[in-house]
């Protein structure tokens, strides 16, 4: 039996739609696997009642297929589905690491990225790798068609998750087909600023580089209370705030000494519009970890 813990992730970071992602210290999914003649899946934990156990509909089943690695698989969800915190990706990344080891497939973590992304194709319609890459590799990742670049960043963040749900598939339907050159120029500048901020562990540069005028504004209407939560977090000292992945999670970057105040402000702002939420006070963290039993 093998066990893998794979972290939640926050994709896009505003200016890096479908490209940027960070691993979060918490929460995480835990996946256990053992060899079996055919794949079966059981699920417990956060939001497990919304997750299909049919391998043909679960991201983990897609990964088992892609690796030709049938197994009895148990998923203990720490990351609630439809959260914007890479729930479907955390399970897929964990399964990819576990099954690769269980069947001695010999893939590197980088080579597992497109394999784990098969799970994302199943649930969101596109094999975007911006969640599975940081969940597999940790830190800050830049995932493009040419491969993944990883930086071991140390940035404090607050990921605030309202009790509402947004499906990534639905949130992809509101994305514009084209963008004004002016907005593209701004976004390229912001993405470059954010990347330098990650390499310098500078929350001010990272926060400034999270601005995005193309995708994020189209999605915020799907998240009740978003503008109030964003304003509250910035007033409490956050250096940048954006939609986490496709939402409804909201990601704030901050200095360590402001983290508690930022988390409280975000929780209170959601509460003021009648929505319960929970705030993960964490930092950019490590990738999937394998435990042998
Ligand atoms: N192992 C899994 N973990 C989480 N969600 C899964 C899994 N397998 C399939 N799903 C489905 O994927 C959808 C959630 O994925 P998605 O909308 O991308 O949310 P998230 O942002 O939390 O990843 C739900 O419909 C859920 O039932
Ligand atoms: N780039 C994707 C990221 C989706 O992240 P999730 O955590 O909401 O699954 C997108 O923005 O659609």
How would you characterize this protein structure?
The protein is an alpha+beta fold. Helix 1 crosses helix 3, helix 2 crosses helix 3 and helix 9 runs antiparallel to helix 10. Strands 1, 2, 3, 4, 5, 6 and 11 form a seven-stranded mixed sheet that branches. A four-stranded antiparallel sheet has the order 8-9-7-10. The mean pLDDT is 97. It folds into two domains: 159 residues, Ribosomal Protein S5, domain 2; 128 residues, GHMP kinase, C-terminal domain (Alpha-Beta Plaits), CATH 3.30.70.890. It contains ten helices and eleven strands. The termini are close together. The protein binds adenosine-5'-diphosphate and ligand LJ64HWYM. The site of the ligand N[C@@H](CCOP(=O)(O)O)C(=O)O has 15 residues, from helix 5. GO terms for molecular function: ATP binding; homoserine kinase activity.
């Amino acid at each position: 039996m093998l066990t893998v813990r794979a972290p939640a992730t926050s994709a896009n970071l505003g200016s890096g739609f479908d490209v940027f992602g960070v691993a979060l210290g918490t929460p995480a999914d835990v996946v256990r696997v053992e060899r079996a003649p055919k794949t079966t899946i059981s699920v417990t934990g956060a939001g497990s009642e919304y997750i299909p156990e049919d391998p043909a509909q679960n991201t983990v089943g897609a990964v088992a297929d892609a690796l030709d690695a049938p197994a009895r698989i148990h998923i203990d969800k720490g990351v609630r589905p439809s959260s914007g915190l890479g729930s479907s990706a955390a399970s897929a990344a964990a399964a990819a690491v576990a099954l690769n080891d269980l069947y001695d497939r010999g893939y590197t973590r980088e080579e597992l990225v497109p394999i784990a992304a098969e799970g994302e194709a199943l649930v969101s319609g596109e094999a975007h790798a911006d969640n599975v890459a940081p969940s597999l590799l940790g830190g800050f990742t830049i995932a493009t068609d040419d491969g993944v670049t990883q930086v071991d960043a140390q940035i404090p963040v607050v990921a605030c998750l309202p009790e509402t749900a947004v499906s990534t598939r639905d949130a992809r339907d509101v994305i514009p087909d084209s963008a004004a050159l002016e907005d593209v120029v701004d976004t390229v500048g912001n993405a470059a600023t954010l990347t330098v901020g990650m390499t310098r562990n500078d929350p001010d540069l990272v926060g400034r580089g999270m601005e995005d005028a193309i995708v994020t504004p189209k999605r915020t209407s799907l998240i009740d209370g978003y503008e109030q939560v964003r304003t509250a977090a910035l007033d409490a000292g956050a250096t940048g705030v954006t939609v986490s992945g496709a939402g409804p999670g909201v990601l704030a970057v901050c200095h360590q000494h402001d983290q508690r105040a930022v988390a409280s402000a975000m929780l209170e702002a959601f509460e003021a519009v009648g929505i319960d939420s929970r705030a993960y006070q964490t930092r950019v963290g490590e990738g999937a970890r394998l435990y042998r039993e």
